[in-house]
Specification:
The complex is a heterodimer of chains A (304) and B (429). Chain A is of the alpha/beta class and 304 residues long. Chain A is 40% helix and 15% strand. In chain B, helix 1 crosses helix 2, helix 4 packs across helix 6 and helix 7 packs parallel to helix 9. Classes of the chains: A alpha/beta (304), B alpha/beta (429).
């Protein structure tokens, strides 16, 4: 593995290697001294063109626990806001000797483009409406932790699939790992050729819930309402929100996930989000571990 | 006096062509002349005519100029191009179209026929002074807001009606604006996977259907720019079956490439070298477009040559400019897509790349059969070679060819504009 740009690039063995490595690294997090010397002398750049404190600090914590030097490059207030191109930013980072560049960008495909211009590894921390592979890895990690397996799990992903990089990465990774994914959304929030994706599709959340082992709720942005994807927040919530009544339809071992940040009361009710069967807080912790594993496997090797 | 020896006119038997005073003065065997050009194995075609070229001057001389763009045209075998109106300032007055026309005369590599804007500033609000442009020295007959759609139905109706007075034609860039806000790539399987905002086929087809009905209603001429979908072909076929005065063009790139290029290509995924408007479509669309060009539903090939400087393409996909250069590769792509597949013979190529576009543009002295007495606008083409496309070898000022990494057939060996060579031995004269 040179880069981690798309969950679809991972073979089953590679994906399992990341999850297994993360499991070993998780034990470190339980120690009183959490730091490993593995990436000492390596430089990781967090290149964030979109505000995302959660993802940035997760990658930062992961790199620091492996003793890497971390440079945070935020587009706001930098040369980028003065019109510098992605290519010139990349060449600047290249000159600084970045071993890995973690990129979050509003344009789909920006990490692919970046990989043409830097020699280091590129980690996609979310590109436009395309992918967010480490989110999918941490979701898979969290499922395995709670339910003991991924193979054969029935996973419902609910919400704005059309604009969701989390959904794209999860569909690709989970199908590689043998889970059965069902996407649930109003037809307006599904891509036109979604039937060719390696998953099932439903418009009816109530029909899908009783047979699901995992329900992953996606954030729905209110500006979608203004673009006529759905009539109102209330109607969306009524048809696709996970409230107490719907939660009761899940079987006893099923878990509820959300990549955050949540709109409580919109796609998920507060009592569901805070229930013991919600993995939402664990997902955050697992994010650091999984990102440590990814960084370690990409730039921790002997050939570096 | 120039004699071209043993050229195969439209792929036929070898003949000698004698050129005198800018005209074809004799066609036969064993002809002599002061200058002899050996054309053994070469095909002679009428000089190609492009209905859709962006020369970028005035305003974006960093991308192309009339001089560099017409050089590229000559290298591609063209003897006439139509320069699109979306310059800066926009070609929406007699003054601007005359300037572009004059720059073409000065450059001398091929005839330049300016296209006039339909609406002032391409803003889609008020008709530009179409009559003044028609009456100017540039004699504008083709009007287009290309790059933008004349989406207002009333304005489109008036434009279609108005140009009847001087036998003009409105060339529509068919793109329903609301359905294509922020659109990046053909809406389909690939755009869904790549997370790029979709450009649905219906946004093109709905406008074409409306415009065909409008053209029929007011009894005017409609030309549809860069048709890109199988559904558009069906609508145009239907309109033609009604006897309506509708013509259409297809670009070389829509005859060869698909939206899959955005995902997997010799130059990597998300490479905006493949970003173009209308977008590359699916293989089914490519097949339908080829068949439509073969059966005449689509009248002609037009390049939509759209030069952009490197910095407008070396970016992330969404930030990149739309368009690709195409003058220098058009004939090779048509050979690959249409001739090698048996869909068109060389007479068909001459019809779709010279005769018909000249008729649509109402050009005199261009797009005429290679016969005694006709202006000596001739392209000599070697169909037997195959070469890798080399962007650095292009004479266009820009390098944004989507064929990098491909090997294409054929090479333009010589181009003659009214008897004067503009290209000889594959090099500019």
């Amino acid at each position: 593995m040179k880069h981690l740009i798309s969950a679809g690039d991972l073979s089953r063995d590679e994906a399992l290697l990341i999850l297994d490595t993360a499991e070993e690294l998780a034990r470190v997090s339980e120690r009183s001294i959490k730091k490993l010397p593995t990436l000492r002398g390596r430089t990781v750049v967090n290149l964030f063109f979109e505000d995302s404190t959660r993802t940035r600090i997760s990658f930062e914590a992961a790199a620091k626990r492996l003793s890497a030097d971390v440079i945070n490059f935020s587009a706001k207030g930098s040369s980028v806001s003065k019109g510098e191109s992605l290519k010139d930013t990349a060449l600047t980072l290249e000159a600084m000797g970045a071993d890995a560049v973690v990129i979050r960008h509003g344009a789909s495909g920006a990490p692919h483009r970046l990989a043409n211009w830097v020699r280091g590894s590129v980690l996609n921390a979310g590109d436009g409406t395309h992918e967010h592979p480490t989110q999918a890895l941490l979701d898979a990690f969290s499922m395995r932790q709670r339910l003991g397996r991924i193979d054969g799990l029935k996973v419902a992903i609910v919400g704005d699939i059309l604009h969701s990089r989390v959904a794209r990465s999860n569909v690709l990774l989970l199908s590689t790992l043998g889970a059965e994914v069902t996407l649930v959304a109003p037809p307006t929030l599904l891509p036109v050729s979604v039937e060719r994706w390696p998953c099932q599709v439903s418009y009816d959340l109530d029909a899908v819930l009783p047979k699901s082992d995992v329900v992953m709720m996606l954030r729905v942005q209110l500006e979608r309402m203004n673009a006529a994807y759905f009539p109102s927040a209330r109607e969306y919530s009524r048809r696709y929100g996970l409230d107490r009544d719907r939660f009761a339809k899940l079987h006893d071992d099923a878990i509820v996930m959300h990549p955050g940040p949540m709109n409580r009361g919109m796609e998920i009710s507060a009592e569901v989000a805070d229930s013991p069967r919600s993995t939402i807080v664990e997902q955050v912790g697992n994010g650091v571990t999984v990102r440590m594993a990814a960084l370690y496997l990409l730039i921790g090797g002997e050939n570096q | 006096m120039i004699v071209i020896r043993n050229a195969r006119i439209l792929g036929g038997e070898p003949r000698d062509i004698l050129i005198a005073n800018g005209l074809i003065s004799e066609i036969g065997a064993g002809l002599g002349g002061e200058t002899v050009i050996e054309a053994e194995g070469l095909i002679a075609l009428p000089g190609l005519v492009d209905l859709h070229t962006h020369l970028r001057e005035p305003g974006r001389e960093d991308a192309e100029t009339v001089e560099t763009g017409t050089r590229a045209a000559a290298m591609g075998g063209f003897t006439a191009v139509h320069a699109m109106a979306n310059t800066s300032p926009v070609a929406d007055t007699a003054g601007v179209v005359e300037q572009v026309w004059r720059r073409g005369q000065e450059a001398g590599h091929c005839d330049v026929h300016p296209v006039g804007a339909v609406t002032s500033g391409l803003e889609g609000k008020h008709l530009a002074e179409l009559g003044a442009m028609a009456d100017s020295q540039a004699r504008v007959r083709v009007f287009s807001d290309d790059g933008k759609c004349v989406s207002d139905a009333v304005l489109m109706r008036r434009a279609l009606e108005y140009v009847k007075a001087f036998d003009g034609v409105v060339a529509q860039h068919a793109q329903e604006p609301r359905l294509t806000e922020g659109a990046q790539l053909n809406e389909g399987e690939v755009s869904g996977r790549l997370g790029l905002t979709g450009w649905p086929a219906v946004a093109e087809e709905a406008i074409i259907a409306r415009d065909c009905l409008l053209a029929a209603h007011v009894g005017s001429r409609l030309h549809v720019c860069h048709v890109s979908t199988a559904g558009s072909v069906e609508i145009i076929r239907w309109a033609k079956s009604k006897g309506w005065n509708v013509t259409a063009e297809v670009t070389p790139h829509h005859l060869l490439l698909t939206d899959g290029c955005a995902e997997a290509s010799p130059v990597g995924p998300y490479n905006p070298i493949y970003k173009v408007n209308p977008p590359l479509r699916t293989q089914e669309d490519v097949t339908a477009l080829r068949e439509a060009l073969a059966d005449g539903t689509i009248d002609c090939v037009a390049t939509d040559h759209a030069p952009h400087p490197v910095e407008d393409k070396e970016t992330e996909w969404a930030a990149a400019a739309m368009g690709m250069i195409g003058l220098e590769t058009a004939l090779s792509v048509v050979q690959e897509a249409m001739v090698e597949t048996g869909l068109l013979d060389w007479a068909g190529v001459a019809d779709r790349m010279s005769f018909r576009p000249a008729r649509i543009g109402r050009l005199s002295g261009q797009g005429l059969p290679l016969e005694v007495g006709a202006p000596a606008n001739i392209t000599l083409y070697d169909p037997a070679v195959r070469t890798p496309v080399d962007p650095t070898a292009m004479v266009s000022r820009s390098r944004n060819t989507p064929y990098q990494g491909l090997t294409l057939p054929g090479r333009v060996v010589a181009t003659f504009l009214r008897g004067r060579p503009t290209v000889l031995d594959g090099k500019l004269v």
